[in-house]
Fold DNA-binding protein.
Amino acid sequence: MSKYNALWEYVKKNGSPSFKLTFDEISEIAGIPLDHSFLTYKKELAEYGYQVGKISMKEKTVIFNSL
């Protein structure tokens, strides 16, 4: 079980073809602070029909896209 499972389930249930979440929103949904390990774990999202698009360090956002 991944530490980001709650986030992956949220993304899957969202159902939008593409949407953006802030780092703070991601931390709140996941129940843990967003850290560098997100870059490793993001590949798990493909199992839920999505992928991580652009990660903006300046805007502190992540775009999620359906596969």
